Amino acid sequence: MAEKTSAALGLFDGVHIGHRRVLELALKNAENGLVPAVFTFEPDTVLKKPTGCDGYIYTAAEKLRILKNLGFNEIYSPSFSHICGMSGEEFARDILAKELNVAAVCCGNNFRFGKNASCGTEELRKFGKKYGFDVFVAEDASLEGTVVSSGEIRRLLLNGNIALANRLLGAPYAVSAEVVKGAALGRTIGFPTANQLFADNQLVVKFGVYRAETVIDGITYQAMTNIGIKPTVDYGGKPLAETFISGFSGDIYGRMIQVQLLEFMRPEKKFGSVDELKAQIADDLKKSIR
Question: Model pTM?
Answer without folding.
Answer: 0.88
